C-alpha cells in the first residue's frame, strides 16, 4: 500500500493548542457521567480526568478542543502514532472480510506468525497469541509449568505483570488480589541501583543482588521453582534501567539452577527501547518472552514466544481463546511489524531517545528536585526527590508536575514520584523539545511552590 510517509508531520510551533483550561467542561461532564458506573481509574486519570476525542500521529485532542503533545502513546501502545495509515488499512480490511473464526488458521494469522518469528531473538519461534498483556504473561507461566512440571515463580520488587491472578501475584501492587498471592509466587529485591536494596554501589557490588536472588531461590523455594519472571526495564516501577550485566547474570543463574527465564516484554517490545526487543540491548535470549502493547500499535494483540525446542509443551496449555490471533489483530500486528521495518523505527527510537535523554540530563543538573533521569530508547523517566542526598521520594511534587505539564499540553504518565515519558517513536525532535520545555516549566513552577 502506498501512503504519504509525512502523514504525521506537524508544525511544532502550533503545538500544543490549548483552547480552554484543561480538563475543560465537556471533559468534566463526560468523566463525571462515566465515573458513576466505573470506579478504579488509574492515577493518571484521577489526577487529570480529561476525556479524549481523537488522536492523529503524535497528538491527542480532547472533547473541549485542546490538542496535546503525546508523551504517552496510550501507555506505551501506539508506538507508530495514532491512526497509522497502514495499520488502519489492514485492520479495516479484516473488519469487512472476517472478524473472527476462533483459532482456525487464516492467511493473515499465518503471515503474522511468520513475520513475528522472523524478528524474535534466537530461536524464540513458538508463538501463541492473546488479547491482553496479562493473558500473555499468564499463558507464559502455564507454559513454564508445563515444561518444568514445577509451579514456583520469582519476580521482583517494582515489577508489574498484569492483573489476572498469577500475573498480579508476581507484581508489586498485589493488593489488587484482595488476599494472598497465588501459591508459589515469590518477590525478590531488584537491581535498582538508585535505590539499592542492599545499600551497595555498582559496579563494586558485583551485582550482589543477583547472588542474593540465587540464595533466596535456594532458601525460600521449595525445590519446585519453574522460572524467574522479570521486566527487562521496569515501567510502572519508574522506568528503572538495570546495569548492562544484570540480565546476563540472571540468565547465567537460571542456567546454573536449571530454571527458566521469562522476560516480560509487553511494555518494552517492538522498538520502544531502541532495539526491536529490549533483551537485545543486553545480548540475552530468554526461554520465554511475552509481547504486547506496541505489537499491534493499539489493536488488542499480545503473544508469547518460546524456544523452539520447548514447543512440544504448547499442546498441553492449549492455544485457543475467543479472540487471540483474530484476523483484525493479526492484520494490525503484521502491519505494525512491517512499518517498523519500512520506516526504520528501531533506529529512530534510539536516536530520539538519545536526544531526549541529553535534555533530561541537563534538566537534572539544573533542578534540585530531580534525583535521577533514566531510560533506554524512548522508554524514559525521571524521579523526583525532596533532597538529592537523602533521596526522599517527592510524591506530591510528582503529582503536581504531572498535572501542571498536562494542563499546559503534554499528555504523559505519572507513577508517584516517578514521571514517565513514552512518546510515539515517530516524533520529530522539534516537537519533543516543545514537550520537554513544558515539563521543565512545570518542574520550575513546583520548585517555586515548595520554596526550592
Ligand atoms: C510489563 C507489563 N506486563 C504486563 C502488563 C499487562 O498488560 P495488560 O494491561 O495489557 O493486561 C503490563 C501493562 O502495563 C506491563 O507493563
In short:
By secondary structure, the protein is α/β, with parallel strands linked by helices. The chain is built from 14 helices and 17 strands.
What can you see in these coordinates?
The protein is α/β, with parallel strands linked by helices and 452 residues long. The protein has helices spanning 25-35, 43-47, 73-76, 85-97, 107-119, 133-148, 165-169, 208-220, 246-257, 314-317, 327-342, 345-366, 395-408, 429-449, and strands spanning 52-56, 59-62, 67-70, 126-130, 152-156, 185-188, 225-230, 233-234, 240-241, 260-265, 288-291, 302-306, 370-376, 379-384, 410-411, 413-415, 418-421. The chain has a seven-stranded mixed beta sheet, sandwiched between helices. Strands 1-2-3-15 form a four-stranded mixed beta sheet. It has a four-stranded antiparallel beta sheet with strand order 13-14-17-16, with helices on one face. Helix 7 (165-169) links the parallel strand 5 and strand 6 (185-188). Helix 12 (345-366) runs parallel beside helix 14 (429-449) and helix 13 (395-408) packs across helix 14.
Amino acid at each position: 500500500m502506498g501512503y504519504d510517509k509525512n502523514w504525521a508531520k506537524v508544525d511544532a510551533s502550533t503545538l500544543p493548542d490549548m483552547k480552554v483550561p484543561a480538563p475543560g467542561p465537556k471533559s468534566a461532564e463526560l468523566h463525571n457521567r462515566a465515573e458513576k458506573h466505573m470506579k478504579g481509574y488509574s492515577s493518571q486519570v484521577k489526577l487529570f480526568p480529561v476525556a479524549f476525542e481523537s488522536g492523529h500521529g503524535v497528538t491527542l485532542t480532547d472533547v473541549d478542543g485542546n490538542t496535546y503533545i503525546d508523551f504517552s502513546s496510550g501507555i506505551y501502545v501506539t508506538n507508530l502514532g495514532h491512526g497509522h495509515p497502514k495499520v488502519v488499512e489492514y485492520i479495516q480490511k479484516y473488519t469487512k472480510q472476517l472478524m473472527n473464526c476462533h483459532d482456525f488458521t487464516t492467511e493473515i494469522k499465518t503471515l503474522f506468525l511468520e513475520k513475528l518469528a522472523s524478528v524474535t531473538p534466537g530461536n524464540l519461534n513458538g508463538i501463541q497469541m492473546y488479547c491482553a498483556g496479562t493473558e500473555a504473561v499468564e499463558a507464559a507461566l502455564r507454559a513454564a509449568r508445563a515444561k518444568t512440571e514445577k509451579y514456583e515463580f520469582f519476580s521482583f520488587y517494582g515489577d508489574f505483570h498484569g492483573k489476572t491472578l498469577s500475573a498480579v501475584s508476581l507484581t508489586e501492587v498485589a493488593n489488587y488480589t484482595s488476599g494472598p498471592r497465588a501459591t508459589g509466587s515469590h518477590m525478590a529485591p531488584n537491581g535498582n541501583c538508585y535505590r539499592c536494596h542492599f545499600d551497595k554501589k555498582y559496579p563494586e557490588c558485583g551485582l550482589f543482588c543477583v547472588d542474593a536472588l540465587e540464595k533466596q531461590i535456594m532458601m525460600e523455594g521449595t525445590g519446585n521453582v519453574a522460572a524467574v519472571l522479570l521486566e527487562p526495564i521496569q515501567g510502572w516501577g519508574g522506568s528503572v534501567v538495570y546495569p548492562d550485566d544484570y540480565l546476563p547474570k540472571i540468565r547465567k543463574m537460571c542456567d546454573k539452577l536449571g530454571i527458566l527465564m521469562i522476560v516480560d516484554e509487553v511494555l518494552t517490545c517492538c522498538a520502544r527501547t531502541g532495539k526491536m526487543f529490549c533483551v537485545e540491548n543486553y545480548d540475552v535470549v530468554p526461554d520465554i518472552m511475552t509481547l504486547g502493547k506496541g505489537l499491534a500499535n493499539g489493536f488488542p494483540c499480545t503473544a508469547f514466544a518460546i524456544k523452539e525446542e520447548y514447543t512440544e509443551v504448547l499442546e498441553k496449555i492449549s492455544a485457543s481463546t475467543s479472540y487471540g490471533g483474530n484476523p483484525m489483530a493479526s492484520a494490525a500486528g503484521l502491519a505494525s511489524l512491517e512499518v517498523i521495518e519500512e520506516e526504520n523505527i528501531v533506529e529512530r527510537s534510539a536516536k530520539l531517545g538519545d536526544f531526549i535523554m541529553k535534555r533530561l540530563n541537563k534538566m537534572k543538573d539544573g533542578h534540585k528536585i530531580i534525583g535521577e533521569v533514566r531510560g533506554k530508547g524512548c522508554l524514559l523517566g525521571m524521579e523526583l526527590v525532596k533532597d538529592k542526598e537523602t533521596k526522599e521520594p517527592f510524591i506530591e511534587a510528582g503529582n503536581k508536575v504531572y498535572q501542571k505539564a498536562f494542563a499546559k499540553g503534554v499528555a504523559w504518565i505519572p507513577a508517584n514520584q516517578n514521571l514517565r515519558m513514552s512518546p510515539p517513536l515517530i516524533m520529530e525532535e522539534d516537537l519533543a523539545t516543545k514537550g520537554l520545555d513544558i515539563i521543565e516549566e512545570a518542574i520550575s513552577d513546583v520548585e517555586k511552590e515548595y520554596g526550592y
